User: Which sequence fits this backbone?
């Protein structure tokens, strides 16, 4: 089996997982707020990470060397994921996913500030193209800018910060360590935010399977994406990942009667082109 086909199969798993998480998030939003969703998602994740880590013998790798950076990274991810769960309940799923694809654009713009990476002319061009794509997807009108659009656009910024801090952590930390602190810290954040008012909702028996799906799908999506990137270059994986948009658009149409807005696809295509141009340039510039 070719590496491209293997990467494609892993990406099918990632796309399926991201789609399931969106559907499950909408299903439980009738009972739980975003903080409660994150709390129970993280508790599910802790069970999975500890079980897999114990079976693989990697729990001993967990250290407390970079707790501050773990906390910063997980605060950003917690904020981004909460905004994502909020956005999927307020605007069409395709619009959320299209705006989420701007995450690499924000990585380009924020990396020079946080990790001193050089901002190139190509990087600026990619950011400009991506910004045009954002405008087409959102089509902002001062009188019609919604909370859902703001949440979807903002979650991409926090996901970009998460990616940058994750890059810093992977220089010294193992995957088990990163995932352990991801789940445990976000469980604490979720408990504090969901329980500050003394009114912490517990999922009903009907909602509980959806909560488990969110916890499993969230970890599985990133596991599949990581494996795809491990065996194939980003220039191969990214076009496959873009299939998330038409997939979620069809799901939104079938399950929620959301219209297929062609402008979302036009804007998303520009965002994809900007990301692909940046990846291709990075590959050309990297030493053999």
Assistant:
């Amino acid at each position: 089996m070719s590496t491209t086909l293997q990467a494609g199969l892993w990406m099918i798993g990632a796309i399926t997982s991201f789609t399931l998480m969106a559907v499950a998030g909408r299903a439980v939003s009738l009972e739980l707020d975003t903080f409660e969703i994150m709390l129970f998602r993280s508790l599910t994740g802790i069970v999975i990470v500890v079980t897999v880590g114990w079976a693989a013998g990697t729990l001993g790798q967990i250290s407390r060397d970079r707790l501050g950076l773990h906390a910063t990274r997980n605060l950003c991810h917690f904020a981004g994921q909460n905004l994502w769960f909020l956005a999927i309940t307020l605007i069409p799923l395709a619009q959320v996913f299209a705006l989420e694809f701007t995450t690499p654009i924000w990585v380009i713009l924020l990396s020079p500030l946080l990790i001193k990476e050089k901002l190139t002319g190509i990087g600026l061009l990619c950011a400009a193209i991506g910004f045009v794509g954002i405008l087409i997807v959102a089509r902002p009108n001062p009188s019609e800018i919604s909370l859902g659009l703001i949440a979807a656009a903002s979650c991409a910024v926090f996901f970009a910060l998460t990616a940058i801090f994750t890059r810093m952590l992977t220089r010294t930390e193992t995957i088990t360590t990163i995932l352990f602190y991801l789940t445990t810290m976000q469980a604490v954040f979720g408990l504090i935010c969901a329980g500050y008012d003394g009114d912490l909702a517990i999922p009903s028996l009907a909602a509980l399977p959806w909560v488990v799906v969110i916890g499993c799908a969230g970890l599985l999506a990133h596991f599949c994406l990581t494996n795809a990137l491990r065996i194939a270059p980003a220039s191969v994986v990214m076009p496959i990942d873009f299939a998330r948009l038409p997939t979620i658009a069809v799901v939104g149409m079938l399950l929620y009667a959301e219209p297929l807005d062609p402008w979302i696809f036009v804007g998303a295509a520009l965002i994809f082109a900007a990301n692909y141009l940046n990846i291709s340039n990075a590959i050309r510039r990297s030493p053999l």
